[in-house]
Design a protein that fits this description.
The protein is an all-alpha fold. The chain contains four helices and no strands. Helix 1 (2-42) packs antiparallel against helix 4 (105-138).
């Protein structure tokens, strides 16, 4: 019976990790898109480019929140199999208000740096989750 519980907990941890990895990859892709639109905005894209960029940022923010939720669940499942880890994702404000109402190079640059920062966090979390999943699957 004890072996079954360990196998069950391992399966749950692997499933939670795969969900987190999927969410992280989706967030990374949407942040890439937002970053591309951000560059277009920096080059003088105007109102419609800002609108599209913010749409991409909103979707990226939603996906990052999902990734954060999935990472927390993954951490919980890892505790059940006594694997301690510190996976976190900071999904902060993307300065949307400033970009729309103080549209200019400085605001666009600040938004672009926030997109890049978020993308960097996601890109750091992905290999961590991949490594933990790889270790879990070996057992």
């Amino acid at each position: 019976m004890e072996g079954y519980n360990i196998e069950k907990e391992m399966r749950e941890a692997i499933e939670a990790g795969e969900n987190a990895l999927y969410s992280l990859r989706a967030a990374k892709e949407e942040l890439r898109k937002a970053g591309n639109w951000g560059i277009a905005d920096l080059l003088g894209g105007g109102f419609f480019v800002s609108l599209i960029k913010h749409s991409k940022m909103d979707e990226a923010s939603r996906l990052m929140e999902q990734a954060r939720y999935d990472l927390k669940k993954f951490q919980k499942e890892l505790r059940d199999v006594t694997v301690n880890t510190d996976l976190s994702l900071n999904c902060g404000d993307f300065l949307t208000f400033a970009d729309f109402f103080w549209d200019g190079v400085v605001a666009d640059w600040l938004v672009q740096s926030k997109i890049n920062e978020a993308r960097s966090q996601v890109e750091q979390a992905i290999p961590q989750v991949e490594q933990i999943l790889s270790n879990l699957k070996r057992y």
